Amino acid sequence: MSDVAVRSVAAGRARLTVPWVRARPGSAGLVDERLTGMRGFRALRIFPRTGSVVIWMVPDLLDVDRLVAALEEAPPASTPAKPTRSTPDSSTGELARLVVGGAVLAFVALRRLLRRPRIATGSSGLLGAITLFTGLPFFRGALRSLRGRSHPGTDTLVTAATVISLVLRENVVALTVLWLLNIGESLQTLTLRRTRRAIEELLTIGEERVWLVRDEGVEVEVALEEVAPGDVVAVYEHHRIPVDGQVVGGEALVDQAAITGEALPVYARAGAEVYAGTIVTSGSLTVRATSVGADTTVGRIISRVEEAQSDRAPIQTVATRFTQRFVPVSFALAALTYAVTRDARRTMTMLLIACPCAAGLATPTAISAAIGNGARRGTLIKGGTHLEGIGRVTAVVFDKTGTLTFGRPLVTSVVTLSDRYTADQVLSLAASGELHARHPLAQAIVAHTEEQHLRAPIHQACEVVLGMGMRAELDGTRLLVGSPALLRRHGVELTEEAQGWTEQLRGGGETVICIAHDEDLIGLLGVSDAVRSGADTVIRQLTDLGVSRVVLLTGDAPETAQAVADTLGITEVHAHALPEGKLQLIRDLQAEGHTVAMVGDGTNDAPALALADVGISMGAHSSHVALETADIALPGDDLRQVPAVVELSRHTLRVVRQNYGLAIGVNLLGLVAGAGGSMNPVLAALLHNTSSIAVVGNSARLVNHTPHLPPTTDTILTAAPLEDRRVR
Is 399 an active-site residue? Predict the structure, then answer.
C-alpha cells in the first residue's frame, strides 16, 4: 500500500501528503526533479513542514496514479537533509521541559531564600527525575555519539555533567545547566518554524485571485493557481503583479524594490519585463505570463532561501571545540587515577573535580547575558551560535537600498538656470506642479518644500504624463515638471548649461527633474536615495574592528551604486545584482575563506541572508521574510548597531574564554590535589560549586556592558537657504 496520501483532486490541481518530504525537508527539492518534464505539468508548491505537495496539471492530463508513483520512492539515506533536534511534534515536550524546569528552580530558590530545611530524600529523588526529564534531548544526542553516529560534543558534555551530578546528588546544578541549554534549543527551533511560516506566506504573492483576460478581451476573476504560462492577466493600480511576464498592454509605474532593490519605481509599457510580487503604484497593465507559482522570480527566491539554509556550514563554537578536547581528557585522567591507585574514593573525587558543570555553564550563561544585553537595545539575536559567529566575521556585505540608504527619494540638489528665479522659487514651482501626483519623486519634492517652510502656489489644472512627469496650468501659464523627455515633448530644449548640470547630477547618482515655466527652463532638481547618517563612520568602525572586506551589493544601477560607495569609502561594488547574483557573491566570499555577514532588508536579500554565516536584517521596514530569515534583527534604522553587535560578540567571546579559564583552572588544581590524595569529596564538591558561582558571576557582567558606538556625522548636505545657481 502506498505511503503517499491523496488529499484532494479538482480542476487540474492535486494535493498529496508525502511522508518523506516531512521527515527530510532537505530532500524536498527532489519533488521538483521528479515532476518537471512530466506531460501536462504546470506548477508545483511544496510545504516541507507538513509534507504537503500541491501540483497543478493540465486538467485533461491529470493522472493521480502517475503522480503517486513518481513520489512513492523515498530518497536514499545519502541524500542531504538538514538535521534538527526538534520537530513540530516535539513542541509540547519542549514547552513542558522549560516550564517544569523553570518552576522547580524557582521553587528551590525560594526555599533557600526563606532558609527552609534541606529537601527530603524523597523530594531529592523527584528532583532527580525532573532533571532527567529536562535533559532528554541531550541524552539522545549523547546516545548517538556512543553509537558512532556523531562526534562527542555538547550533548556528551551535558550528559556527563548530569550523570555525575546526579550520582553526587548535585541535582540543582545539573537542572540549572539543562534548563539554560533548553532555552537556547527552543529559541533556535522557534526561529526555524517562523522562517518556514514566513516563506510559505510569501508564496501567496499577496494576491489569491487575479483578473484573467480571455481571448475576447473579457476579464474573468479566477484563483491564482489557475493561471498558466501564456495566459494574460490584468493588473490595476495598488495591486501586486501575480506572475513573471511581459507587458502586452497599458503603461504603469511599478515598484520593484522587493525584487531588484531599485529605490524608485520603473516605467513599464508594452515589451517590458515585470516580476511577480512587485506593485503597480500608478496606471494599469496587461501581462502575458512567462512563469507562474514556484517558477517566478519570487518563487525562486523562496527556493534559494531553503537551499541556502540547508547548505549553510555550521559555525564551530567555543563550546564545541572545548568539549571535543575536555571530555575525553577528563575521563581518561579519572580512569588513570583508578588504574594507578585502585582507590574508588579518590577516583570519585577526581570525577567530581573533573565534572564539567562549570564548563557547561561557561557558554550558556555568557550567551544568555549577551542576548539580554542586545534585547535591551532592541537587537534580537536568535541564538548563541549567531552571536558567536558575528564576532568572527571578516567580510560584511551591505545591501544598498533601505540599508545604507533610506530606501526613499529625497531632494538633494537644487539648481537655478534663470536670473529671474531664486532657488526657493524653483523649488516652490516644482512642488506646485507635483502637488497632486502620487509618484515617490513628486512626494519627495512636496515634502522637501514643506520642510523648508516654503509655499507652493496652487495650480488650476494638471495632467499626469506617465513615465515623464506633470504638466500644470498656473495662473494662465504652463508649468512642466519632469524628465528632459517631457520638456522636449512640449518644445523646450535643454541648454548647454543645463546639459552640463544634468550630467554632473547623474554622475553623482541623482535623478534629474527639470522645471520649465512657459517656454523657459528655469531650474533642475536632483533627487536621490540619500545615504543614512553616520554610514561612513560605521564602515570605518567595522574596518577598525578587523573586517577586511566591506562590499556594497545592490540591484540598482552601477552609477547610483558607485556614488553611494564613493560617499562611504567602500571600494568594492556589485550592481545590477538579482537574488541569484547576491547568493553567488556570498558563496564566492566563503570559498575565499571569509566568514561573511550579510546586512539587508528586502525580500530579494533573503537568500543571501540565509546563506551568509550571519544574516542581519536592518531597519524597521524590513520585509517579513528578511526579518525571519536573518539571524540577527537590528532595531529601527540605526546602522551603528552593526558594529555594536560585532563588538558585543567579541566581548562575549572574551568572557566565555575567561569562564573556561576559570573552570579549567579550578579543575586542574583539583585534579592535581585529588590525584595526590590531599582532597576529599566534600572539599571537591565545595571547590566545584565555587567555580560554577565564579563563572556565573563573570557572565553577569555582560548584562550591563555598553558596546562602543561610533559618533554619527550627517552625510546629507543641508546648507543654509538656497541661493541662485547654488547646489545643495
Answer: yes
